[in-house]
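A favour, since you know our structure tokens better than I do. It will help me judge whether the discrete encoding reads sensibly. The space below this message is yours for that.
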Amino acid sequence: MHMVTRRKVLAVSLAAGFGTTAFSQQPIIRIVHGSNAGAPQDVMLRILADEMGKAAGRTVIVEPKPGASGQLAMSVLKQAPADGNTLFADGTGITSILQLPGRLHEWTDFEPLYRVQLDPFALYALPQKFKDFASFAEEMRKQKDHVRIGGYAIGGPFQLLMIQISRKVNGDFSWIPYDSGGKAIAAVIGEQIEGAVSNVSVAKTFTPRSKILVQSGESRLAELPDVPTLKEQGIDIIKYHWRGFFIKKGTPVELIDRSYAMVKAGVSSARFQKYLKESGTLEGTMSRPEMAQMLSDQAQSDTQLLKQLKMIS
């Protein structure tokens, strides 16, 4: 009953807001992101965009703009007018990738809007080669940097998490960057690399051809009951890959608020909630000030780790 009431309130608010001339008259709302079509983020965004469009009475489209670890998509937002019609979707890596040499943008160039989803990280490998995480950790101890592990981007959260894990088990590895986690898992299946760091949300696509050895969530997932957590393996790390939205800096506050309400309506929809449950992911909703503080704290933590790794000075 509470959910019905909340959705009714959202619907009334959106209907009032989007019907006024204060909100842009442009018929299409664009969501740009830096992943490939079919990547976990792209799949999530297409479901969410459909529900956002229903709530707002607007056409909402998703445009993958892969390249430069998401920075091409960031450029699209920077070049767009501050009218609320262009949203940029990104995730945890924004505060580390945008501290690396050669970056095109600063993470502070974008206005935080909405944290949508929390997706545990996952280590994928071939089941015929590694029966469990312990056997993979032993391989990293014995073979060191001959163990090839792939994932999205250089200096992003997937690589940084794997570095933290390898230190905990006194092992090592060589990082092979891909432009999507899915491609890294495909490389595992093709026996080009030994492991891939991606997320649990793509498990159904790549299992049983590959196997998740461990995931980084707080507890085991109902959808993957046989997959242990890092904590169960004696590694005191709980970490989620969050995905969310940014809007152009300088956008009027009333348009930011209406964009937030539109996203919230989509996230609250029964269809999107079903997707979260079935994909083993969690809703990440928080207030805009909370998201801004989260980004600031995360950036400071990333700075320390990147300096330790000598990736930045």
